[in-house]
């Protein structure tokens, strides 16, 4: 937590207040379609798999959140990855002068493709590091939903009342916060590898790097400390992020369900 505060303070002192929010446009551009794909897909796959396992093999029902989260996250990640790439590069961008204007999402993506324009690798560069992204996001989602689903059901059961907006928000926020924080801590080395691959400037190297090679380099350069670099910031962001997204999604579902019943 101290390192997170120190990093934010250094950013503010060296680059100005606005730089603390660099990449925000890309983050918002990414969040809307990602959540729009991810959450409904999770609900859909969870419901059909729970129905199937309950009838055919009840002992497998406990694994449904893990599998449904894995499939839904894979679909969302592949669909929205170019914007994720732009967001990471924008946040890593360091202007040589204070007044240098940061590139936007579109300009960042064009710059990714331009160095290899005319080659077979041109538009493939938009998915540079996708393997590392999947290697991080799929385990994150699997761990997150495996914890979140039973936790929120336990909280809702303990409340022992008819679902209302307040109880839905409370149960989902608490479960989401815990699940997001644990999943973020567990997958931090994969996040470090993903970021290193995304900001790699050497085109040939970026296209040939693998997640295993990147993790080996990180271990060689920084050991365990390098593998968990930025863990405090990642956990501090993931816990509230998961809590807010899941709470908002579930309460909107509850509101729409009540609206259609009236």
Automatic annotation (TrEMBL):
Among the GO biological process terms of this entry, one is: stress response to metal ion
Q: Which InterPro entries match?
A: MCP_dom_sf (IPR023395), MCP_transmembrane (IPR018108), Mtm1-like (IPR045315)
Query: Where is this chain primarily localised?
Result: mitochondrion
Q: Where are the Solcar repeats?
A: 60-154, 167-255
Q: How does it sit in the membrane?
A: Multi-pass membrane protein
Q: Which GO terms describe its cellular component?
A: mitochondrial inner membrane; mitochondrion
Q: Which Pfam families match?
A: Mito_carr (PF00153)
Q: Where in the cell is it found?
A: Mitochondrion inner membrane
State the Gene Ontology terms under molecular function: superoxide dismutase activity
Sorted keywords for this record are: Membrane, Mitochondrion, Mitochondrion inner membrane, Repeat, Transmembrane, Transmembrane helix, Transport
In terms of Gene3D superfamilies, this protein maps to: Mitochondrial carrier domain
Classification via PANTHER family: FI19922P1-RELATED, MITOCHONDRIAL SUBSTRATE CARRIER FAMILY PROTEIN
Family classification: Belongs to the mitochondrial carrier (TC 2.A.29) family.
Any idea what this protein is called? Mitochondrial substrate carrier family protein
* Source species: Arabidopsis thaliana (Mouse-ear cress)
């Amino acid at each position: 937590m101290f390192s997170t505060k120190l990093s934010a303070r250094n950013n503010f002192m060296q680059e100005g207040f606005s730089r603390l929010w660099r990449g925000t446009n890309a983050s918002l551009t990414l969040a809307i379609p990602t959540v729009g794909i991810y959450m409904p897909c999770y609900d859909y796959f969870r419901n059909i798999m729970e129905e199937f396992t309950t009838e055919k093999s009840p002992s497998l029902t406990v694994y449904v959140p893990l599998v449904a989260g894995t499939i839904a996250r894979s679909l969302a990640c592949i669909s929205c990855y170019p914007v994720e790439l732009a967001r990471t590069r924008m946040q890593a961008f360091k202007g040589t002068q204070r007044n240098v204007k940061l590139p936007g999402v579109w300009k960042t993506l064009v710059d990714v493709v331009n160095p290899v324009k005319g080659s077979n690798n041109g538009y493939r560069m938009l998915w540079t590091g996708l393997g590392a992204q999947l290697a991080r996001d799929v385990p994150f989602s699997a761990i997150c939903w495996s914890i979140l689903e039973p936790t929120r059901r336990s909280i809702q059961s303990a409340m022992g009342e008819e679902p209302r907006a307040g109880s839905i928000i409370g149960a989902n926020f608490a479960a989401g916060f815990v699940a997001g924080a644990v999943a973020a801590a567990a997958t931090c080395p994969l996040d470090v590898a993903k970021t290193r691959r995304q900001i790699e400037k050497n085109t040939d190297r970026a296209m040939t790097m693998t997640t295993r090679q990147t993790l080996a380099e990180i271990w060689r350069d920084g050991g365990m400390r390098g593998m968990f670099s930025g863990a405090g910031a990642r956990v501090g962001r993931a816990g509230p992020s998961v809590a807010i997204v899941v709470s908002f999604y579930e309460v909107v579902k509850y509101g729409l369900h009540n609206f259609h019943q009236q």
